[in-house]
Write a structure and sequence with these properties.
Elements lengths: L2 H10 L3 H19 L4 E2 L4 E3 L6 H11 L2 E2 L5 H10 L7 E8 L2 E4 L4 E2 L19 E4 L10 E4 L7 E5 L12 E6 L2 E6 L3 E2 L5 E2 L11 E6 L10 E6 L3 E4 L3 E3 L12 E4 L11 E6 L10 E6 L3 E4 L3 E3 L12 E4 L11 E6 L10 E6 L3 E4 L3 E3 L12 E4 L11 E6 L10 E6 L3 E4 L3 E3 L12 E4 L11 E6 L10 E6 L4 E3 L3 E3 L12 E3 L1 E2 L3 H21 L5 H28 L5 E2 L1
Parallel strand pairs: 4-9
Antiparallel strand pairs: 1-2, 2-9, 3-9, 4-5, 4-7, 5-6, 7-8, 10-11, 12-13, 14-15, 15-17, 16-18, 19-20, 20-22, 21-23, 24-25, 25-27, 26-28, 29-30, 30-32, 31-33, 34-35, 35-37, 36-38, 39-40
Helix pairs in contact: 5-6
Length: 574
């Protein structure tokens, strides 16, 4: 049965009771007519005793019986040819051409091949639309011939239906047989009187599903329908609508409810994910906990849940490298960085250095760690320090510090006090090596020429600073018989020169009064000079010097006198 016929039939069941009541009324009318039946009593067939046209014949049969006879098969034809008496004009039967199709008017069924029983050469074309049956004819007995419906008169051959409106329970076609009937059940019904609807298996409500059924005929019987659905988070796998068909099978296999699937989440790069699946892999109610490996932070939700919509509760998170503060390059410093993951992120490394003249205070290498902190504090570049220079003894020093005290580029100018000469560089600069540009200079006393001791002379010197250096002093004298020509005392001055020229020791011989006089005069003058030079000596020293001088003069006079007495006077210089 097609879907359209199925729906139509099921709709007709609703009107069954109304039609049943109408049939009961017609049945009462028919029983009334049976009291005037003149026919074969044992076979539910009858005929009229007078001839009439086909329309009148049908009216006659419908008034007193059921209708003009509707022949179902050859057995029925043979039976009629046997029991019905011969009539020279023969009998009308219930066949008529309707829309060029031979149709049983009582049942409105098309004439089928099994029931066809045309006489030879029949049916003839034209307007001969009604059919007669040859009863007890010499030839073609029981066969049919088509004749005009109004131009010929024949007896009416009627039948009284054995079939009643409820003979087949309203679920089948009642087929007349000789003296009885059979039921040809409609699809979906069975039993002798089509009283039972075909049963279908009771459908199982799918797990996590719902089902609503309607039963117009009987529980889970022909025409029963079921609408199947699923609870939240589940999708129906199969047909939404099931109907019990005439075959006793449902129109579709029983559906199932399957958990909604969510997209398999992608584990973020450098991430980890742990999932649980109470129903099915990455299905409704599956949950995933997402994290990141060391050095990375989760950007997004930690927990994901597969929802009834088939979507995760949150977008898939990502793992992003931990960021470290951008390091500040120290003043006078340099920095070179590499970033294997991202700028100044986890595992970024920086190598720090300093420009010439500066030293790194801190770690050379920095690494961005998982904590988001650098492995060491940011280093600084500090100017190279030089040793604090020692001011040389008897020296002076003036320094300038453009960066830091005694640091890179500090400069010192060194000098010496009077009487001293600088031994080394005047200018010192603190260099990038941490060393001064030159060794520390010294101040050395000015040197004076080593005095030459006069022949027949004596010299006694003292050196408070250095031998024959600034402030060295020498006392010069002469041996017996010689007189000092120059200063007794010499001092080495800041200029590197002695305070007076080097003195000499001079001797003499008596060769005349003039020479004697000159030598004596010289000695006296020397004594005077001695007294003048020792003017600052204490009184006791003056007395001693004067005595010595007078003794020397006196001795010289005595010596000269002796020589004069021995020989004549002749002075000679030595």
């Amino acid at each position: 049965m097609t879907q359209g016929i199925y729906v139509e039939f099921c709709a007709q069941q609703k009107h069954y009771l109304v039609q049943k009541r109408i049939a009961h009324i017609w049945l009462l009318i028919l029983l009334h007519e049976l009291t005037a039946w003149e026919g074969v009593q044992s076979w539910n067939y009858s005929y009229s005793t007078t001839d009439m046209t086909w329309p009148d014949a049908r009216n006659y049969c419908q008034s007193f019986f059921t209708d003009l006879v509707a022949i179902q098969n050859r057995e029925e034809i043979n039976h009629l040819n046997t029991v019905i008496p011969r009539n020279p004009t023969y009998y009308w039967i219930g066949i008529r051409k309707i829309n060029n199709v031979w149709t049983w008017v009582g049942t409105n069924k098309t004439l089928d091949e099994e029931a066809k029983n045309w006489a030879a050469g029949e049916p003839t074309p034209g307007a001969e639309d009604c059919v007669e049956i040859y009863i007890k004819r010499a030839t073609d007995a029981g066969r049919w011939n088509n004749d005009p419906c109004l131009e010929r008169s024949k007896r009416a051959l009627c039948y009284l239906a054995s079939c009643k409106p409820n003979s087949c329970s309203g679920h089948g076609q009642c087929v007349e047989t000789i003296g009885s009937y059979t039921c040809q059940c409609y699809e979906g019904f069975n039993g002798p009187k089509c009283q039972s609807a075909v049963k279908c298996e009771i459908p199982k409500i799918p797990r996590n599903g719902t089902m609503t059924c309607s039963h117009p005929i009987g529980n889970f019987s022909y025409c029963s329908t079921c609408d199947v659905g699923c609870v939240e988070g589940f999708l129906l796998n199969g047909s939404v609508n099931l109907q019990c068909e005439a075959s006793g099978m449902w129109s579709s296999p029983f559906p199932t409810c399957e958990a909604v699937k969510c997209e398999t989440p992608k584990i973020p790069r450098t991430g980890i994910m742990t999932c649980s699946h109470p129903i099915g892999n990455f299905s409704y109610r599956s949950t995933c906990e997402v994290g990141c490996v060391e050095g990375f932070l989760l950007n997004g939700s930690v927990n994901l849940q597969c929802e009834a919509s088939g979507m995760w509760s949150s977008p898939f998170p990502t793992c992003e490298a931990v960021k470290c503060e951008i390091p500040k390059i120290s003043r006078n410093g340099t920095m070179t960085c590499s970033h294997p993951i991202g700028n100044f992120s986890y595992r970024s490394t920086c190598e720090v250095g300093c420009m010439e003249g500066f030293l790194l205070n801190g770690s050379v290498n920095l690494q961005c760690e998982a904590s988001g902190m650098w492995s060491s504090p940011f280093p600084t570049c500090e100017a190279v320090k030089c040793e604090i220079p020692k001011i040389p003894r008897n020296g002076t020093m003036t320094c300038s510090h453009p960066i830091g005290i005694f640091s890179y580029r500090s400069m010192c100018d060194v000098g010496c006090v009077e009487g001293f000469l600088l031994n080394g560089s005047v200018n010192l600069q603190c260099e990038a090596s941490g060393m001064w540009s030159s060794p520390f200079p010294t101040c050395e006393a000015v040197k004076c020429e080593i005095p030459k001791i006069s022949r027949n002379g004596t010299m006694t010197c003292s050196h408070p600073i250095g031998i024959f250096s600034y402030r060295s002093t020498c006392e010069v004298g002469c041996m017996e018989g010689f007189l000092l020509n120059g200063s007794v005392n010499l001092q080495c001055e800041a200029s590197g020169m002695w305070s007076l020229p080097f003195p000499t020791c001079e001797g003499f011989t008596l060769q005349g009064s003039q020479r004697l006089q000159r030598n004596a005069t010289a000695m006296i003058a020397q004594c005077k000079g001695t007294l003048k030079e020792n003017n600052s000596i204490k009184i006791i020293s003056i007395g001693i010097a004067s005595s010595v001088c007078l003794i020397s003069v006196l001795s010289a006079v005595i010596l000269i006198t002796r020589k004069v007495m021995k020989k004549g006077f002749s002075p000679i210089s030595t």
